[in-house]
Structure formats: C-alpha cells, structure tokens
UniProtKB/TrEMBL annotation:
Main location: membrane
Organism: Nestor notabilis
CDD domains given in the database record: MFS_MCT12 (cd17424)
Name of the protein this chain belongs to: Monocarboxylate transporter 12
An individual GO BP term: creatine transmembrane transport
Function, as annotated: Functions as a transporter for creatine and as well for its precursor guanidinoacetate. Transport of creatine and GAA is independent of resting membrane potential and extracellular Na(+), Cl(-), or pH. Contributes to the process of creatine biosynthesis and distribution.
A single GO molecular function term of this UniProt record: transmembrane transporter activity
Keyword Oxidoreductase among record annotations: no
Length: 484
C-alpha cells in the first residue's frame, strides 16, 4: 500500500528496533576492536601505526562502501542487502580468528567485515527516516543508541572473552554474534511513499521512450521496474536525479564539515584504551572507560533526539549538531592532561554524551538538507565521506605517538579538527541566515520588488544566487504580486 506520508509509528517501531540491533552489531563491534589493540600489538610484535591500520580499514571499508549499501537497498531490497552484509561481516570475523599476520587481519577483519557492515548500516538508518517525520529525531535517538548500549555491554564482555579464550576465541564468538544482522534484515519491511513514487509524465516527452509505451508509462511510477522499457539515456538521467543533491550548496558545506569531524572522532576510539593503560590504569578499568563512554552515549542519543524534536529547538537542529561536535573537540584538547582513572571518568562521560548527540543528528540534518526521498542516497554519500578520514587518522595518530613518544599531539590534532568542523558549519549557517534576511528585506520593499519582477533577466540573476527554498519563496511571492 502507498502511504501519503511517513506513518510515525506502527511497524516503524519495529524498524527502529531493527536499526538499534544493526548499530549494536556494526558500530559497537567496531569500537570494541580497540580492546584487541594491545593484544594484536603484543602477539605480532608491531608498532602503533601498523597495528592501528586494522581499525582504520574496518571503519574505512564501512564508510567507503556505504553508497554500495544504498544502491542495493534502492534497486534490490533493503532486506537482501542487510542479510548479505551480515553474512559477509560474520565470515570476516571468523576468518580473522585464524589470522597469522597483520596483513591477514587487514583483509579479513578490515576489508571483508567492513564491507559487510557497509551493506547493513546506511540502509537500516535510511529506513527509519522513511517511517518517521514528526518524531524523526527521537526515533533516530533510540535507533542510534544501540551503538552506546552495545559498547557498554560488549566492552567488558570482550575483555572477559579475551582473558578466557584468547583474542582468537573472542573474534570467533563475535563472528557468531554478528550473524544477528540477518535477523535485523528480516525486520526491514519496505514502505512506499508518494514522494518517492513520482509519476512519469515529465519523462514522456523524451525521444528515448517509444510512443507505443507512453500510454502504459502514464499509469506507472518511476519506482517500478522500468528497466526493460527504458533506454540507456533514460536510466542515466534517473541515476543523476537520484544524486542531484550533490550540487546543493547546503549539502556541500555539510560534506566538508563531515570530513573534518570524522578525522577528529576516529582516533579516540582506537587510542583511549592504550592511552589509559600507558598512564597506569588497569586493563579492566580501561575497558570500563569504554563502557562508560558507551552508556553515556545512549543518554546523548535519546535526550538530544527528544530535545531537538521539541518545537523550540526543531528549527535549530544545525546549531545543536555543531555545538555537540565542538564540545567533543574541546574534550579531546583536555585529554592529554587527564592522567589517572578518576580524571578520565569525567572525560568519558562528557565525550560520550556529545558523541551520542551529534551521531543522532547526522541523519536528521541530512534529511533536512536533501529531503526524505533522497535520504538513502545522501546518507550513503555522507558515510562514504567518513571513509578517508577514518582510514588516515588512526595511523597518523599512531605515527605521532611513535615519533613524539606521547599522545598529546594526536589528541590535540583531533580536537582542533572537530572544532574547525563545527566552526565551518556555524559560519555557513550564519551566512545563509544573513542572506535570507536580506532577501526578506528586498521583497518587503515594493519599489525594489517591482523593479525585479518587471525585468526577467534581473529576476533570473537574483534567484540564481539562492538555494531551492529561496527560489520557491520568490516564486510564491511573484504569483501573489502578479495577482495584485
């Protein structure tokens, strides 16, 4: 059945539950790989930089292949994509338990497991956006809290498994646990929305559609499988329309901001446990720091999701997002002076809370920028942009640790990167607000408005400088002016 809009409930809560489990099996498991860091380094006798590549490749493959997950979800089935991803991720973890070198782990734990996570992560998140509108931020807060809950539970469990069964046995058990992604995939029932199923008349005038088939196409939606009747040009055009948001100024700014944010956040999850061990914290206390970070992450997910759904903050989601990113950057700047367990605990609380906050808002902000119909593709691109920073930042941080003999330079670089990400987005939003205020003052001036709308060339040059929402506003104002 086709829905006029997102149902904001019903089976949507099962979608939230499925996405919750997906984030546990993907992001929480990825974070817990840092607990294996010292074990890998000791067993294979390698330095920080080479060992850090394992975590980097997992994160990079997860984000780099995110558009592939969106593609399979859009053109085959979200259920098929997530189930396939679960099988690949489980296979990668099981093969990793038999590793004899770091290169083996690069391929099995890094590439294969990361690819499996990629096929699951972005399609599951996009499905939540399909089912919710009014309570979208809250739904995302609950769904994304799986990362925090999973980290809280898995961090001490993984440490216990390593002690009892060695790192090989722990990876083997994690491989079986990750098979639960196949169950999550079965919950992802697709939904048809009117905004997704645009009618075909805009294509009927194109020469590449045979005239004999136009009558049938008028009764057919673009989301139907028209591959047999469309030519290559038509399919290319539709593929471009699916990614036309890439040229939106708002999305471009968000993309650049995400690059710096991703560079800053990744090394901390790799080096928090090794840093804690280097300042004299015990293995169990170091794992407990990851658990604290995870459980407070949940609070950030849910409370920020609920708060930004309130009427007073709904219009200011972008500023809530950049505030959370900036606070995490400040936490990283202070981390080098925290050199015992009692001081590291407040850090885990603060960093975990704001990490959960901005992670929840990433899909919400993306949906606000590109719209629900393009959300799956846009999320694939956004998570794709995480790939290079996730690949580069942990080895760079490890190289700085090997070179300087301390973690200070690594953590400072992470902090400044996240603060720059927040500042960039802040200035972009302020510039947009100033431009829109100037537009309103222009349209309120009767003489100026008459001058603009009586000259088509000038009208075109003015509207070309504004984004889509501004163009729509000007178009409405033009109609009302012409009637007067």
């Amino acid at each position: 059945a086709q829905h006029a809009g997102p149902p904001d409930g019903g089976w949507g809560w099962m979608i939230v539950a499925g996405c919750f489990l997906v984030t546990i099996c993907t992001r929480a498991v990825t974070r817990c790989i840092s607990i294996f860091f010292v074990e890998f380094q000791t067993y294979f006798g390698q330095d920080y930089a080479r060992t850090a590549w394992i975590h980097s490749i997992v994160d990079c493959a997860t984000m780099l292949c995110a558009p592939l997950g969106s593609l399979i979800s859009n053109h085959v089935s979200c259920q098929v994509g997530i189930m396939l991803g679960g099988l690949l991720a489980s296979t990668g973890l099981i093969l990793s338990s038999f590793a004899t070198s770091l290169e083996h782990l690069y391929l099995s734990l890094g590439v294969l497991t990361g690819l499996g996570f990629a096929l699951c992560y972005s399609p599951a998140i996009a499905m939540v956006g399909k089912y919710f509108n009014k309570r979208k931020a809250l739904a995302y807060g609950i769904a994304m809290s799986g990362s925090g809950i999973g980290t809280f539970i898995l961090a001490p469990v993984v440490q216990l498994l390593i002690e009892q069964f060695s790192w090989r046995g722990a990876l083997l058990i994690l491989g079986g646990f990750v098979l639960n992604l196949c169950v999550c995939g079965a919950l992802m029932r697709p939904i048809a929305l009117k905004e997704d199923c645009k009618t075909a008349p805009e294509f009927l005038e194109q020469d590449y559609i045979p005239k004999a088939q136009k009558r049938d196409l008028k009764r057919t939606s673009i989301c139907s499988p028209l591959i047999k009747v469309w030519s290559h040009e038509c399919l290319c055009y539709c593929s471009w329309k699916e990614y036309d948001f890439l040229l939106m100024p708002g999305f471009m700014v968000l993309a650049v901001s995400v690059l710096f944010m991703a560079y800053g956040c990744s090394p901390l999850f790799v080096y928090l446990v090794p840093y804690a061990l280097s300042v004299g914290v015990s293995h169990h206390q170091a794992a407990f720091l990851m658990s604290i970070l995870g459980v407070i992450d949940i609070t950030g997910n849910i409370t920020f999701g609920w708060l930004t759904d309130r009427r007073c903050l709904k219009k200011h989601r972008h500023f809530c997002y950049l505030f959370a990113v900036g606070m995490d950057g400040l936490c990283c700047l202070f981390l080098p002076v925290l050199q015992n367990f009692p001081l590291l605990m407040p850090f885990s609380f603060t960093f975990g809370y704001f990490d959960g906050a901005y992670v929840t808002l990433i899909p919400v902000i993306t949906a606000d920028v590109v719209g629900t119909s393009s959300l799956s593709s846009a999320l694939g691109v956004v998570y794709f942009l995480h790939a290079i920073p996730y690949l580069v930042s942990p080895p760079v941080a490890g190289w700085l640790v090997d070179t300087t003999g301390s973690y200070t330079a690594s953590f400072l670089l992470c902090g400044f990167s996240m603060i720059f990400s927040s500042t960039l987005l802040c200035f972009a939003n302020l510039a947009k607000k100033i431009r829109r205020t100037h537009l309103l003052s222009l349209t309120n001036d009767t003489g100026t408005k008459q001058h603009i709308w009586t000259n088509g060339a000038i009208a075109y040059s003015v509207t070309a400088e504004f984004d889509q929402k501004d163009v729509e506003f000007l178009a409405v104002d033009t109609n009302s002016y012409s009637k007067r």
